[in-house]
Design goal:
Radius of gyration: 15 Å
Strand order of the largest sheet: 1-2
Organism: Saccharibacillus kuerlensis
Protein name: Zinc-binding dehydrogenase
């Protein structure tokens, strides 16, 4: 479970460039099956992001 101290530590690592998120691809919520298929290929080189619009 994350707490404020852990989150602050991660934010500092990100700000200083020590921790970098690698984004491989982005998909919309409607493309979720395609995203899942891509991840299952084992070829992804970073994170796969699922974007969804707010429903409110």
């Amino acid at each position: 479970m994350q707490n404020k101290d852990n989150m602050a530590f991660l934010m500092e690592l990100t700000k200083t460039g020590i921790l970098n998120a690698v984004i491989d691809r982005r998909y919309s919520l409607e493309q979720l099956p395609e995203a899942h298929e891509y991840v299952e290929t084992g070829r992804k080189k970073g994170n796969v992001i699922i974007k969804f619009d707010s429903m409110f």
